[in-house]
Amino acid sequence: MGNLLMLWVAAAGMCYTTLSASAWSVSNFLVTGPKAYLTYATSVALGAQAGVEECKFQFAWEQWNCPEHAFQFSTHGRLRGATRESSFIHAIRSAGVMYTITKNCSMGDFENCGCDGSKNGKTGGHGWIWGGCSDNVEFGEKISRLFVDSLEKGKDARALMNLHNSRAGRLAVRASMKRTCKCHGISGSCSIQTCWLQLADFREMGDYLKAKYDRALKIELDKRRLRAGNRAEGRWAPTETFLPRAEAELVFLEDSPDYCTHNASLGIYGTEGRECLQDSRSASRREQRSCARLCTECGLQVEERRTEAMSSCDCSFKWCCTVKCSQCRRTVNRYYCTRPAGSVRPRARGKSSAW
Ligand SMILES: *[C@@H]1O[C@H](CO)[C@@H](O)[C@H](O)[C@H]1NC(C)=O
Ligand SMILES: *[C@@H]1O[C@H](CO)[C@@H](O)[C@H](O)[C@H]1NC(C)=O
Question: Which residues are the signal sequence here (predicted)?
């Protein structure tokens, strides 16, 4: 018993350190949940953290840039808003957990799960059979459901929304899986192939969910039906009550606030002072438009700042085998959103000193 308690404490501490920013409600599932949870707690925390990082990456050049506090769940374990942005957060977190646990299974990190070989030996299609180590998404999905969905204690529309989006995140992991094959046959003739299903890169998953975010569906609430639903006991299957045809789509209930303007009471930083990308050869089209999105569309101007950066140059290859470079100074243009001279930054009234 003593050992078990120690383990609990250790696992809880781990969660707090890796997930402090997201204020993952450890006590919710570690202390009250079944003991089996312990085995997965660390991986779950790592998976959720991977979701946080991916969110930051996906939204780095957007007005809402997935700030750390967006993952702070209130005492009831929920986010403040029921916006498009919170739909993404729920989906990516749940996907991250499923993804990490699934990878762990394939790596043999857990005793009770491994590759999914259930179809091995069967014909998959013309010229190929199932074989090798397919990622066991079934298991990852189950653990993600256990951990992530148990955080949702409410029974209202917002709870439904959160559960729905968490599920959509898990469906995205499945949807972005890829078939990978290996050739067999006389001297690589590839007359027969064995194939298995593999998780995509987590980045691809993130791209996939970002696209879902872009066309997320707003749900208009039927108040009466929801109130009736509130009295129902136990958990609902969200897709049944909610959206029979859109199980893989992200859904939200409230329009997003204005992310341009600093608003302490809403926890919005505003885009003033943010960096944006322009004339960068490596930037995507969407990134190239970030100065318009972050500055111009928010009533700010784009300010160019010249900075000096050191980088390697004049490299030469010395026989054998080193590369010698000199350090060169290079002027780099960076772009920031600034308030046009003469205009004053609007001050939050009342609780303006909240941060
Ligand atoms: C699960 O995988 C992550 C890396 O993806 C690794 O850091 C973690 O230690 C693994 N969990 C276990 C229990 O081995
Ligand atoms: C912050 O947002 C709230 C809610 O939309 C609004 O009532 C308030 O006026 C905003 N404050 C500022 C300073 O814009």
Answer: 1-21
Is 268 inside a domain boundary? no
Question: What CATH number corresponds to the domain at position 339?
Answer: 3.30.2460.20
Distance of CA 83 from the midpoint of ligand 2 (Å)? 16
CA separation for the pair 331, 337 (Å, rounded): 20
Residues 305 and 234 in one domain: no
Angstrom distance (rounded) from CA 283 to CA 240: 41
Regarding the beta carbon of 263 and ligand 2, being less than 6 Å apart is answered yes
Q: Residue for token digits 């609902």?
A: 236
Residues 344, 345, 346, 352, CA torsion sign: negative
Which 8-state DSSP code applies to residue 151? T
The pLDDT of residue 273 is above 90: yes
Number of domains, the chain: 2
Residue 263 in any domain: the answer is: no
Residue 285's domain comprises 275-354
Cβ of 265 closer than 6 Å to ligand 2, yes or no, is yes
Residue to mutate (ligand 2; options 262, 263, 268; most atoms within 8 A of CB): 263
Same domain, 68 and 8: yes
Q: Which atom of ligand 1 is nearest to the CA of 109?
A: 14
Q: Is the CB of 104 under 6 A from ligand 1?
A: yes
Distance 263 CA to ligand 2 centre (A): 6
